[in-house]
């Protein structure tokens, strides 16, 4: 899994690209506090090589908790900017700092 960030000079947003290798998966989404944990808002596209990828504009100067939802199961990004304990989920969530 990987995250790439591209900061825009003209707007206070960052283009964040999420890449998730999940060959056997049917559906992958990114859920987090930037989209109210709604799996319908940030669905990744499946590429021919079985990887899922998507780019989304997120406001800068924020820190977001997020996870991947792969066929209904949560997965953690090991290369996140950090981790934060989430009392509601009872686990650590990856952090995306922009």
Automatic annotation (TrEMBL):
Q: What is this protein called?
A: Isoamylase early set domain-containing protein
Q: Which domain of life is it from?
A: Bacteria
In this chain the Glycoside hydrolase family 13 N-terminal domain maps to: 15-77
Entry's SUPFAM superfamilies?
A: E set domains (SSF81296)
Name of one Pfam family that matches: CBM_48
Taxonomic lineage from the root: Bacteria, Pseudomonadati, Bacteroidota, Flavobacteriia, Flavobacteriales
InterPro entries reported in the protein's UniProt record: Glyco_hydro_13_N (IPR004193), Ig-like_fold (IPR013783), Ig_E-set (IPR014756)
């Amino acid at each position: 899994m990987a995250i790439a960030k591209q900061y825009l000079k003209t707007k206070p947003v960052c283009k964040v690209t999420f890449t998730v290798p999940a060959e056997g998966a049917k559906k992958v989404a990114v859920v987090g506090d930037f989209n109210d944990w709604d799996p319908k808002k940030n669905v990744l596209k499946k590429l021919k090589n079985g990887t899922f990828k998507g780019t989304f504009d997120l406001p800068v100067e924020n820190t977001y908790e997020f996870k991947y939802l792969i066929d209904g199961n949560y997965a953690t990004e090991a290369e996140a900017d950090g981790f934060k304990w989430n009392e509601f989920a009872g686990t650590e969530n990856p952090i995306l700092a922009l």
